Amino acid sequence: MLQENGRLPIKVLADRVGISVSPCWQRVKKLEKDGIIRRYIAEIAIEKLQSIQGVLSKVVLSRQNRDALEFFERHVCAIPEVAECYEVVGHFDYHIKFVVSSIDPYTEIVERFLTPGFGVERYFTDIVSRVAKEDRAIQLRRFG
Q1: Cα–Cα distance between 90 and 70 in angstroms, integer?
Q2: Residue 9 contacts by C-beta under 8 Å, 6 or more apart in sequence?
Q3: CB–CB of 21/28 below 8 Å?
Q4: CA–CA distance, 79 with 59 (Å, rounded to integer)
Q5: Would you list the DSSP string of 103-135?
Q6: What are phi and psi of 96, to 5 degrees?
Q7: d(C-alpha 133, C-alpha 72), whole Å
Q8: SS3 72
Q9: Contact of 57 with 96, CB cutoff 8 Å
């Protein structure tokens, strides 16, 4: 419930999960302390403020040792337009989601960072034409 509304009053949360306010508050504080609740944020509909373009890149590094991966991550994750960056197992080493105002800023980023100097052997670009689903709340099903 907090994934859907991080501003949910503790009394309402307690009612919805079926416990009293004090234990609910203690559980939420423990989840925060244990790092299970990482942070509370406001999800902004940036596309309503300005035009944006989503770009997905698949990256193959020339070396896959831990030092090369950490070097690449340190530099790529410092790029403000990088919304998500995943180290993956498969045909590629990384999948990166960029959010840019247009394709031009992405091209500038590619020319600076997705180069052999940063350990990139090759990369592939996909331009997002439409978002079919984008949801930050994770719903896990219990089986059994």
Answers
A1: 18
A2: none
A3: no
A4: 15
A5: HHHHHHHHHHHSSGGGTEEEEEEEE----S---
A6: -125, 135
A7: 29
A8: helix
A9: yes
Nearest to 96 by CA among 84, 108, 80, 81: 84
Summarize pLDDT for 59-116 with one digit per residue, the tens: 999 999 999 999 999 999 999 999 999 999 999 999 999 999 999 999 999 999 888 8
> 């997905």: which residue's tokens?
56
Q: What is the pTM of this model?
A: 0.79
Amino acid, single-letter form, for residue 116: P
In 41-119, which ranges are E strands?
53-61, 82-87, 94-100
Task: Tell me the backbone φ, ψ of residue 27, rounded to 5 degrees.
Answer: -65, -45
Residue 120's H or E segment, with its range, is strand 120-127
CA gap 137, 5 in Å, rounded: 10
Measure the CA–CA gap between 42 and 143, rounded to whole angstroms: 32
The answer to whether 85 and 76 have CB atoms below 8 angstroms apart is yes
